[in-house]
Write a structure and sequence with these properties.
Keywords: Riboflavin biosynthesis, Transferase
Bound molecules: ligand LW54GNZ2, ligand LTPLIIQW
Number of helices: 5
Largest sheet: 4 strands, parallel
CATH topology of one domain: Rossmann fold
Function: Catalyzes the formation of 6,7-dimethyl-8-ribityllumazine by condensation of 5-amino-6-(D-ribitylamino)uracil with 3,4-dihydroxy-2-butanone 4-phosphate. This is the penultimate step in the biosynthesis of riboflavin.
Protein name: 6,7-dimethyl-8-ribityllumazine synthase
CATH class of one domain: Alpha Beta
Order of helices and strands: EHEHEHEHEEH
Pfam family, one: DMRL_synthase
Shape: globular
Low-confidence stretches: none
Number of strands: 6
Distance between the termini: 43 Å
Catalytic activity: (2S)-2-hydroxy-3-oxobutyl phosphate + 5-amino-6-(D-ribitylamino)uracil = 6,7-dimethyl-8-(1-D-ribityl)lumazine + phosphate + 2 H2O + H(+)
Length: about 160
């Protein structure tokens, strides 16, 4: 497996700009809260580490990953933000419900990003089981929340650069 024993959150080879000038929204799904809280900690701590201020980080919870799309839309509609991070954890159950949620939220957050011309980051774990989720929320494969923060900062910087 290509990801076996690999820290997927290793951005040491990539330069992360300062986040001081940017405002971020974070939408966190309550489903699998032990996982999503760990994703949130990773995202929040890295936004701060790279210069974002607490007053420029706006955090809201939604019931499940399916509602992340609506949450991101509401934040961009009502707040002046440079990027929105969506955090969730969808774990396969007995039925195809998993597939519908994952596809809906992936397509949904992408559509919101295009709608507002703002970066909306897909920080959603879509795993076969809880262990895979734990491994990607601060475990052996890193923290998807860290990755989401780095991506949000880099995309906000890109948008600022191109705006001139
Ligand atoms: N099974 C998981 C869900 N299910 C709930 C949906 O996201 C949604 O809230 C519901 O269908 C009502 O619209 N959500 C997750 O985030 N993770 C899951 O594993
Ligand atoms: C991904 C889900 O919604 C899942 O938890 C639902 O489980 P099931 O497919 O067994 O109903």
């Amino acid at each position: 497996m290509s990801t076996q024993h690999k820290n997927l959150s290793d951005f040491s080879g990539s330069e992360i700009p300062s986040a001081l000038a940017y405002s971020f929204g974070i939408v966190v799904a309550e489903w699998n809260a032990e996982i999503t809280n760990a994703l949130y900690q990773g995202a929040y701590e890295n936004l701060i580490k790279y210069g974002a201020t607490a007053e420029n980080i706006y955090t809201y919870q939604v019931p499940g990953s399916f509602e992340l799309t609506a949450g991101a839309d509401l934040l961009l509609k009502n707040l002046k933000l440079d990027a929105v991070i969506c955090l969730g954890c969808v774990i396969q159950g007995e039925t195809r419900h998993f597939d519908f949620i994952c596809n809906a939220v992936a397509n949904g957050v992408s559509n919101v990003s295009i709608k507002y011309s703002k970066p909306v980051i897909f920080g959603v774990l879509t795993t076969d089981n809880h262990q895979q989720a734990f491994d990607r929320a601060g475990g052996k494969h890193g923290n998807k929340g860290d990755e989401a923060a780095f991506t949000a900062i880099k995309m906000a910087h890109l948008a600022e650069t191109l705006k001139g």
